[in-house]
Structure formats: C-alpha cells, structure tokens
Amino acid sequence: MMKLTVLGSGSPEAYARRASSGYLVEIGEDRILFDCGGGVFDNLLRAGRLPRDITHIVFSHLHSDHMMDYARLVHAAWDEGGAAIKVYGPAPIKAITEGYFGPNGVMAHDLWARTELKPSQEVWLARGGTLPRPWPNPEVCEISPGDVIEGGGWQIKSCEVPHAQPALTCMGFALMYDDKTFVYSGDAAICDDMETLCQDADLLLHWCYRLDGQKAHPVMHALTPTPSQIAAMATRCRVKQLMLTHFRINMDDEAGHKNASKAMRAEFDGLIGIVEDLDSYSI
Fold first, then answer.
1. Does domain 3-282 have CATH number 3.40.50.970?
2. What is the pLDDT of residues 114-143, one digit of tens each?
3. Rounded distance, CA 187 to CA 144, Å?
4. Domain ranges within the chain, ordered by starting residue
C-alpha cells in the first residue's frame, strides 16, 4: 500500500489555508516527497514526520512554489543527523544544490559556524554526533523526461508536460508499487505523453489553475486545463480516482468548489475531490 499525504495544495500566492506544492508518498521505509514548495516543511511536521524521515525528493520542475523549502528541509534533516536525501529533478538542480550547500554557497557561513566553532561542535557531540562533521551532501541526480527512477520495490516513470518551456523542464510522474499507480501531474497542460502516463491510474493528482468559465489570456488557455478538461482526460485514461490541487485563492470558496465538482462529475464517473493540506489517502 502507498500512503499519500498532501503537504501543500496551493499556488505561489501567499495563503494561510494552503502551502505551495508538496506531496508525501510513503512506501515501506521510503518517504518520497514530490516537490517542496513554501510551507511544506511546516506541514511535514504537522503531519507527524521529521525532516530526517524523508528519503527521496522528486522535483517536477523548478518554479519557486515547487522548491522554496528545499534548502530548509535538507539543512534540517542534516542537523538531525539524517542520512543523505536522494534528490531527483531537472537541471539545474545540481547547481542549485551547490549554490546552497557548496563551499561558496549561500549557507556556507552558517555551515562553517556549525561545524568549526568549538561551542557548536560541543552541542553536536552532546547530541550523539562525531567529528569532523561533514556538510550537507544530498545525493543529487538530474533527470530528463522519460527517465525512470527505481526504488525499493517501486518505480517512477516520467514524461514532459507543457508548462514553462523553454525556461524550465517540466515533468509529470507515475509512481508504481504493488500493482497500484499514483500519478502526479506537476503543473501540466493536457498532452499525449501525460495521457499515456495516466493509463489505468488508481489515483491521479492533477493541478488546476482555473475553473470552467473563468477568463484567461489566450496564451494561458492551452496551458491551464479546467476541471472538465482534466476529468475528460481521466475518463479517456480509465483513471479510478481524480483529485485536483494547486487551487488559487480566487477559486477556493464554496462556489468555486461546487463549480469544479460539477464540471468533473459531468465528464468522469469515478471518485473525485479537491485536496486540502494534510489530507491523506491510501492507494
């Protein structure tokens, strides 16, 4: 069984109700975090997990609302004495990581103080650590659309999705374990590769940037599918459960939820919903 916990279901907008994107999937001893936007760190603690519990981070793309808490999480896991986190994401995630934790990174002054000053060393030793104390060193692997990530009995397939090209590489993912499939769209327009990834998924978690009937600039229409369009795709792909996420403030009231649910139900007969922070699902 896979357990999905929503750690962030919002957008880049500052919003007390929803953190930015972050989704934790637990499989056995593995804790796989898809994206790590602002507020995800705090919701991880609210969900009863510690930074050192995270074993893998998988980035769909490198917009700030999908990675703003990355450095905070890695630093906190390191400070707790956790094992190096395995990090997967598009380029330039290696350079970004080096820019945080490398010898000339923005955290270098902090890390030097924590590892070289005698008082900090004594605090570390009192907590059960040993010297010399190495700096954070997550195991970073840059991936491209189509690459496959292998884990302990699980597999993640990837595809490219239209969103912020050519500035960013943007991906969707299908996590498969024990004959179950969880699909996370990232920020995705409807596309053939995503439909292939979604085939027969047990749960599809898809971003939703606008509602049916909401006006948008013409360049945004093709990139921001509405609930009815997402639901129609879910039907074509024989998805069992469809959940929407990434809700913006102007969509997130009773009327907006009714609009989205009615539009989904008109196109899709399976289970539907709009996720909230700290919701959890068994897959």
1. no
2. 999 999 999 999 999 999 999 999 999 999
3. 16
4. 3-282
